[in-house]
Structure formats: structure tokens, C-alpha cells
Amino acid sequence: MPILRADQDTIRTNAPNLHMCHEGLGMSEVTAMEPSAAAYAAEIDRKGYTVIEHYISPEQLERGRAFINQQAATHGHEYFAIHGIEALGGSLIAGLALSQPFKETLTELYRLQTGREPAVTEQIFPVIRCLQGRSGLKQSHFYHFDATAVTALLPLYIPTEGEHCGDLIIFPSVRRIRFNALRNVIEKAVLHNTASQKLVAFAVRRGWLKPIRLKLEPGNLYLFSGYRSLHANDECDPATLRATALFHFGNPHHESLVARHLLGTNKRKAKLDHNGLKPVN
Ligand SMILES: O=C(O)CCC(=O)C(=O)O
User: Fold this and answer.
1) 120 CA to middle of ligand 1, Å?
2) What dihedral angle (degrees, nearest 10) is formed by the CA atoms of 221, 222, 223, 226?
3) Which is the closest atom of ligand 1 to the Cα of 244?
4) Separation of 261 CA from ligand 1 center, angstroms?
5) Which residue of 79, 141, 153, 213 sits with most ligand 1 atoms within 8 Å of its CB, as the best mutation to test the pocket?
6) What is the spatial distance between Cα 268 and Cα 157, in angstroms, rounded to a whole number?
């Protein structure tokens, strides 16, 4: 079972069949490590999330941050997000999204969570989110379910000062994985509309609801089921920068035309096809 840690020159994995280079990251060596994907999946089931500490090396974190700094400078200190491998081309994040061992890890988690194989054409869909400025506040407490069963979150910059530091907020296992696309659409319309999002945000801010709050550490990898859990990030001071990379994998409705037409707003906005790639025309 392919759990790996991505050091600059080393990948450690407990998968004997994954002794290979980490594509796009220039990695050369693989050694054994624990625990297994099954242990991580069990922890996600039990606690709602799991963490792989120091998933990337300090040098890789610096590379990831250099990319963020470059992008942040062109966005006038306001919120931005970058969707898809092509838009992230050449960056550490695109390299991870293209990494075969990383995909194997997420595939194994998908299998364990759903009992099924992911669609053969499925790719990891990477997203970078950068909260800064007043517009960053509007993107906080935006409670939602992801389209994919497995979500991996890699924090790059997390504020450390002030009352609110952009914690990851999770209500785990709010719903089950559905393979019926129409049922998924209806469930999302009920649980995940503007009114319910505002209500949840209000109740969390007031302390009436008590979700899991994770203080994120840059360089760690946080794994959870984005499909099953209602989640969002807490706000942070608009003068600070909060940058996270998200890796979405395993859409249970990958082949469904209903889901493709009624959901997938982010990909549509970014003008990407349902595999997260620029359509060829
Ligand atoms: O950036 C974060 O911490 C959360 C982002 C998120 O929930 C998502 O895009 O699915």
C-alpha cells in the first residue's frame, strides 16, 4: 500500500511495488516507512482526518513557497486560486499531482473508502488557494463537500499570529459516498446551498456547532474525505497570507453526465474538462 513521504532526494514507501522515482520531483531513492494506507483510511474513518507529518522537505516547502510568492505578487494582495495541472505547470504542486506513487496512495485510499476502483482516466486535480486581503475573508467559512472522495491538503503558508489563523474546519462523515449521481445532486442541493452554508458559518462562529479545528503546519499532508465531510477554512487576518495546495482524487460520479452538467463549477469556471485538463480543440 503506497504511502510515501516526499523528501527532496528520498521517497519512503511501504509499497514494495512502488520503488520508483517520484515523477516531476527529481527523486531518486525509496526506503520503507509505516503506517499503511489501511491505517490512514481507518484513522480517517475514526477521526475524520489523518496527518502525514513533514510530508515534504524544507527545501521542497521553499520551492512551493517561491511559486506562491511569484503568483501572489501578480494578484494585488487579494484572494486567488489556481486550478489544474496545466495552470500550475512546472511547480512543485504540479509535480506532486503528476507523481505516480502519490496517485497510487490516493487510489488506495479511494479503494478503501469506497470499495471500488476509481475511473481509469481519473487524474489528481490540484488546486492552489491563497487567502489574502479582504477578498480572502469572503472565501472563509465557505462550507462545502468536494466532488472527490479523497482530499489531500498541503499547507504552504499558514499565519501564526492573531485570533484566527485559517484553521481547517471539518464536520466529518456528514454523508455517505453515493454512487447514484442524481441522489448526490439532490443531497448537495439540500446540505450545501447558500442558506445552509451561511447558517453553518454563523453557528460555527457563535460556537453553537463544534466541528474539528485543525491548526495546519506547513509541510504536513492532511488527508480526509472531502466528499463525506462538510469543510471550510477559518478566516485569518487580511494582512497575512494563507496558501494551501489541495489534491482532489476519486470522483464517484466521474462517468456521470448528470453530475458533469449539474456540478463541477470550479472546473467549468477554470475552463477545464471533467478530468481537470484544458480541452483540446
Ligand atoms: O484551503 C483550505 O484549507 C480548504 C480548502 C477546501 O476545503 C477545498 O477547496 O476543498
Assistant:
1) 25
2) -130
3) 1
4) 22
5) 153
6) 27
**In percent, how much of the chain has pLDDT > 90?**
60
Amino acid at 31: T
The residue whose CA has the least distance to atom 10 of ligand 1 is 146
C-alpha cell of 1? 500500500
Q: Find the 258 Cα to ligand 1 centroid distance in Å.
A: 24
Cell digits for 80? Answer: 486567488
Confidence of residue 24 (pLDDT cuts 50, 70, 90): very low
Chain length of the chain: 281
Helices (runs of H) and strands (runs of E) counted in the chain = 9, 12
Sign of the CA dihedral with 182 first, then 184, 189, and 190 last: positive
Nearest to 229 by CA among 165, 179, 176, 184: 176
Query: Kind and range of the H or E element at 11?
Result: strand 10-13
Q: Find out whether 37 and 105 touch, Cβ atoms under 8 Å.
A: yes
Which residue CA neighbors atom 5 of ligand 1 most closely? 232
Non-local (6+) Cβ contacts of 76 within 8 A are: 133
The pair phi, psi for residue 94, each rounded to 5°, is -65, -40
Q: What is the pLDDT of residue 253?
A: 82
What is the CATH T-level fold of the domain 4-269, as seen in this structure? Answer: Jelly Rolls (2.60.120)
How does pLDDT run across 100-113, given as a tens digit for each residue? 999 999 999 999 99
Distance 232 CA to ligand 1 centre (A): 6
* pTM confidence score: 0.83
